[in-house]
């Protein structure tokens, strides 16, 4: 009996492991970058086709929906279905004395016909949908399938999009019923550094964070659902780091906060990078020509300085600085004199593509020399 029990136990464990591996690893899923997802959402909205955005925690699912809503001039209603009960969707029944019938009072969060008339579009964002209890998902199914629930009818200009974590992410999720899943177009989001970088530039993410991650791109995201760690790196947690940094902060407090945001291992690496970066020349002094040489050859520091110089140039251009062309000239001259070819090309590519600097070859004194020396490398980099 004991041997039979042990054999049965081992067989059960093996079957569970096979099932877990099949569910997590052997199902091929096409993934999309944030910018690609935005384009897909816009097209689906044009056809009023509901979408479901899948993805790991902290990679920007909610932000992407918000960005699309803003771009199409839509009012967004964000509903966390995991916090709702079935009656929160169906509404509460009440007796109507006018016709002696039971009617339903819809939830205040759902847009009325009168409210909808005030907006071009309304994006109804059902976040954490697959974390909602099955009974809540069933109520949402009626809303998505028939665009009505009870006596409530969804206005014509309401666009539906939902989001949730994958089962493999080890969050609290319930398997979505096949009929409900079949009502959605499904997109699985992936982390893309170039898309994040563009977002970071437009949202004033701290230069130390951008500089470090430009050098160590893989550290943007290191979520492992099997890890017991409560803190891990995601685009969202790096934005926490950006918010918590201060110019005159004390090292111990900063290390504690960074560790609590992205994990201890990355915190040590990031703080070491900050120490090196603190010894770099002021980017403004480089761009005004006061500083012409760089003492350090630490590669991560040079990456960070390149990002800072591009950031300063963007700020100068945005403010209409009349010396912008001279600043670009000093940037190119400094890069040629101090950086290896790879870093020079990276810097000009960042400036042109990510920071969208309007460099005028006719107004930059050293441009011809720069182009003759690095033009072929820049062309190859832009083509890749």
Structure description:
This protein has 384 residues and is of the alpha/beta class. Among the domains are: 31-190, Rossmann fold; 279-383. It is built from 17 helices and 10 strands. The chain has helices at 2-25, 34-46, 61-71, 86-90, 113-116, 134-146, 178-181, 193-202, 207-215, 235-244, 251-262, 264-278, 283-287, 299-318, 324-338, 341-354, 367-383; strands at residues 31-32, 51-54, 74-80, 92-96, 101-105, 121-127, 148-149, 152-153, 158-164, 185-189. Strand 7 (148-149) and strand 8 (152-153) form a beta hairpin. Helix 9 packs across helix 14 (299-318) and helix 14 packs parallel to helix 16 (341-354). The radius of gyration is 27 Å and the shape is elongated. The N and C termini lie far apart (65 Å). Mean pLDDT is 87; it is low at 1-9 and 14-26.
Keywords:
52% helix, alpha/beta, elongated, two-stranded antiparallel sheet, single chain, six-stranded parallel beta sheet, 10 strands, 384 residues, Rossmann fold, disordered N terminus, 17 helices
CATH class of the domain at 31-190: Alpha Beta
- Beta fraction of the residues? 5-15%
Main beta-sheet strand count, sense and barrel state: 6 strands, parallel
Low-pLDDT parts are: 1-9, 14-26
Structural class: alpha/beta
Number of helices: 17
Strand and helix order: HEHEHEHEEHEHEEEHEHHHHHHHHHH
> What's the average pLDDT?
87
Strand order of the largest sheet: 1-10-2-9-6-3
Query: Would you count the extended β strands for me?
Result: 10
CATH superfamily of the domain at 31-190: P-loop containing nucleotide triphosphate hydrolases
Helix content: 40-55%
